[in-house]
Amino acid sequence: MFGNHDDENTLATKAYQVSIYEKYDCFVGCAGEDLGDTNLATYFVPIYSSTNKNNMVSNIWMIDSGTYNTETESGGYAATTKAQIQWYKTKSAELEEAYGRKIPSLMFQHIIVPEIWDALEECEEGTPGSIGHDGKSYKLPEGTKGELGEGPCPPNYNNGQFDAVLERGDVMAMFFGHDHTNSFELDYKGVGLINTPGIGFNSYN
Environment class of residue 37 by beta-carbon count within 10 Å: exposed (0-12), middle (13-18) or buried (19+)? Predict the structure, then answer.
């Protein structure tokens, strides 16, 4: 699953990178659906019962959230595309029909959804652990695990991905990277929004 820097400033395209990964027997993944070269690695990994290989008990959605915004004139980071969202809705419905129930799932992608700003709690300026955004201050809701080390950087436009997740009702939690110093897990409308931090000692520069 790619992030916004993986094909930046390099001749090694995502397609080339996937072709290298696929040479390893231990690689779990694929180029995914034909949703365009800029969103190459979008697919799902089915999890089957240990006692019945035909019974799918869980699922992992892998979404290439893209790089930079070319859909609108507002710039910023890319949002999951409408084609990807429709693919997820279609596949999710097909799985529900095939197994007679919604398949409990986790969804992984790099760039966090715009709804993160709705999930955070507005607070007074200077509140410990708060960050500023558009002239306001925000903090993690009471009881949330983790730390808000920087302002989240979602796309500045919305294609409706989180609404699709709510509509389908199969995703228990969504996992993101992108914001290097954010490490939190919070619940928003029954879906976990979980940000994992960068793994380096020097997260920026």
Answer: exposed
Neighbours of 86 (CB within 10 A): 13
How buried is 137 (Cβ within 10 angstroms: 0-12 exposed, 13-18 middle, 19+ buried)?
middle
The encoded tokens of residue 83 equal: 């084609």
Residue with tokens 């395209």: 13
Buried b (16+ CB within 10 A) or exposed e, 167-178: ebebbeebbbbb
- CA terminus-to-terminus distance, the chain: 23
* Phi, psi of 118, deg, nearest 5: -75, -30
Per-residue pLDDT of 61-112, as tens digits, reads: 999 999 999 999 999 999 999 999 999 999 999 999 999 999 999 999 999 9
Q: What percent of the chain has pLDDT over 90?
A: 83
Strand partners, 32: 42
CA angle 176, 155, 94 (to 5 degrees): 60
